[in-house]
């Protein structure tokens, strides 16, 4: 929680979430655990604010930022996920990518680059969603019955936090949409041709909104039978790297930031024009600050494994007891 006048950090709380590795190269997380960690962080942060004698009724708005590309499909009638979330760095879709490549003239990985800014890769949500539709019977059936909803983590959270199966808002913002490989970054709409290419039904996709508008109001949390922030509008949504670009106030053409987390990501603001790289950088939407405001673009360089390797040395290889040792 920040002071809106001074940007001073007033209070925070964090919870580490388990990653599961069911097979080599597979990375999953439990969407319910992600959601419950958000409930817990909200409640604990508000408790800390009360202890500091800061009035939480002064909290005017809530923003969501999330791991990009991580893919969830859930049942809108029960509110339950239909499978674990497939995490952005998961590699199970390699064979899906190879199969799709065979259908592209000249096996050109950058066939959709000028629409999406992205190469065909295991990274992006469309191939993860394709894998789920091909391999999980329950998801196929939910799609046939009209019960399935797809989203990246922001969509899953906003839908759940605004009421879930009781009227939750199914939306995403332009930055997260621009990481799916299904979104045209110029028209700012889902692309029917790409959806057809990946054979993804458009009715399961969230509505795409700007990064700064009121999506819906927070409802009380079922697990706490309360909710310190019930009724507060959720009014901001940005994928994590884009949020860092905005947080570092890189609002001018040419300003760049680098984040060091699970991976390392360098984003450079290119203003209101999309710039295409000849050297493997991807083109992405940086932000769109309001319904009627223009979209701004960025070039991005990505290193998939950075902090994650530290965690792997600790948890999997067992050669360090803590991240600090590394």
TrEMBL record:
EC id: 2.7.1.30
Reaction catalyzed: glycerol + ATP = sn-glycerol 3-phosphate + ADP + H(+)
Keywords for this protein: ATP-binding, Glycerol metabolism, Kinase, Nucleotide-binding, Transferase
Domain of life: Eukaryota
Residues covered by the Carbohydrate kinase FGGY N-terminal domain: 1-247
Pfam families: FGGY_C, FGGY_N
The keyword Transferase appears for this protein: yes
GO CC aspect terms: mitochondrion
Any GO MF annotation of the entry: ATP binding
Pathway(s) annotated for this protein in UniProt: Polyol metabolism; glycerol degradation via glycerol kinase pathway; sn-glycerol 3-phosphate from glycerol: step 1/1
Gene Ontology terms: biological process: glycerol catabolic process; glycerol-3-phosphate biosynthetic process; triglyceride metabolic process
Carbohydrate kinase FGGY C-terminal domain ranges (all copies): 257-320
Family of the protein in this entry: Belongs to the FGGY kinase family.
Protein name stated in the entry: Probable glycerol kinase
Primary gene name: Gk
């Amino acid at each position: 929680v920040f002071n809106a006048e001074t940007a001073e950090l007033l209070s925070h709380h964090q919870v580490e979430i388990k990653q599961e590795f069911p097979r080599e190269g597979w990375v999953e997380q439990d969407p319910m655990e992600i959601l419950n960690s958000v409930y817990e962080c909200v409640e604990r942060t508000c408790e800390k604010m009360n202890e500091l004698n800061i009035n939480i009724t002064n909290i005017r708005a809530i923003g969501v930022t999330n791991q990009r590309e991580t893919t969830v499909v859930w049942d809108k009638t029960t509110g339950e996920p239909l499978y674990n979330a497939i995490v952005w760095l998961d590699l199970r879709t390699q064979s899906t990518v190879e199969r799709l490549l065979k259908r592209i003239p000249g096996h050109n990985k950058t066939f959709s680059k000028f629409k999406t800014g992205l190469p065909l890769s295991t990274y992006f949500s469309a191939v993860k969603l394709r894998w789920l539709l091909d391999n999980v019977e329950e998801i196929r059936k939910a799609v046939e019955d009209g019960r399935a909803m797809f989203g990246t983590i922001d969509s899953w959270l906003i839908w759940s936090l605004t009421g879930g199966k009781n009227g939750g808002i199914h939306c995403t913002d332009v930055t997260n949409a621009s990481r799916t490989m299904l979104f045209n970054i110029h028209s700012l709409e889902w692309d029917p041709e790409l959806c057809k290419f990946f054979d993804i039904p458009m009715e399961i996709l969230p509505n795409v909104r700007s990064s700064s508008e009121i999506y819906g109001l927070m409802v009380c949390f079922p697990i706490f039978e309360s909710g310190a922030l019930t009724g507060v509008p959720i009014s901001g949504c940005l994928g994590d790297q884009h949020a860092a670009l905005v947080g570092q106030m890189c609002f001018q053409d040419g300003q760049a930031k680098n984040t060091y987390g699970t991976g390392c990501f360098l984003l450079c603001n290119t203003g209101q024009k999309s710039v295409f790289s000849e050297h493997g950088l991807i083109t992405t939407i940086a932000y769109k600050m309001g319904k009627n405001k223009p979209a701004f673009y960025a070039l991005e360089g990505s290193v998939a494994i950075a902090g994650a390797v530290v965690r792997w040395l600790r948890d999997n290889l067992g050669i360090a007891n803590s991240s600090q040792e590394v």
